[in-house]
Amino acid sequence: MKPSSISSCKNGPPRDLKSQAAEDYTSEEYHMIMSTNLESCYHFSQLAYPLLKSSGNGNIVFISSVAGLVSLHQLSIYSATKGAINQLSKNLACEWAKDNIRVNCVAPWVVRTSPVQDLLSDEEFVKKVESRTPMRQLGEPEEVSSLVAFLCLPVASCITGEVIAVDGGMSVYGFEQ
């Protein structure tokens, strides 16, 4: 059986993600974030391309973040990598469609996972997140994984080049009235 999907190129929140002003990043920190979040996904996709092409029906689903869709306080470099992954998804979807390879991206907001466990123990942080989320809830891992699985199914064969936020409405939320 030929492989047909990369169900996820994991590049979610690193355990050492820290909020920091853009001018305070060192060159080393900048390169580490770019390498971890963007370059790894790009190169992994390059390596997988021949296998996905030979399968005749390939799928790539990147995991990005709403940080690539909206501004998040003092996360400029992290956010830039997520925005780049979003655009990479769109470009690869167009370039590789001729080979019947679909490329999509899932962009979660705050999801109850181990990398953010310390943040979730801070009640003020959770209240702030919920106040910016119209659904007033944090995401659950199953909500992200179910979408990734769906995007890899034949029933999603016409979906490519999309960045789908799993964020309870956070990325489309305006001023509260």
TrEMBL record:
<feature type="region of interest" description="Disordered">
    <location>
        <begin position="1"/>
        <end position="21"/>
    </location>
</feature>
<protein>
    <recommendedName>
        <fullName>Tropinone reductase</fullName>
    </recommendedName>
</protein>
<keyword id="KW-0521">NADP</keyword>
<dbReference type="InterPro" id="IPR036291">
    <property type="entry name" value="NAD(P)-bd_dom_sf"/>
</dbReference>
<keyword id="KW-0560">Oxidoreductase</keyword>
<dbReference type="InterPro" id="IPR002347">
    <property type="entry name" value="SDR_fam"/>
</dbReference>
<dbReference type="GO" id="GO:0016491">
    <property type="term" value="F:oxidoreductase activity"/>
</dbReference>
<feature type="compositionally biased region" description="Polar residues">
    <location>
        <begin position="1"/>
        <end position="10"/>
    </location>
</feature>
<dbReference type="InterPro" id="IPR045000">
    <property type="entry name" value="TR"/>
</dbReference>
<dbReference type="Pfam" id="PF13561">
    <property type="entry name" value="adh_short_C2"/>
</dbReference>
<dbReference type="InterPro" id="IPR020904">
    <property type="entry name" value="Sc_DH/Rdtase_CS"/>
</dbReference>
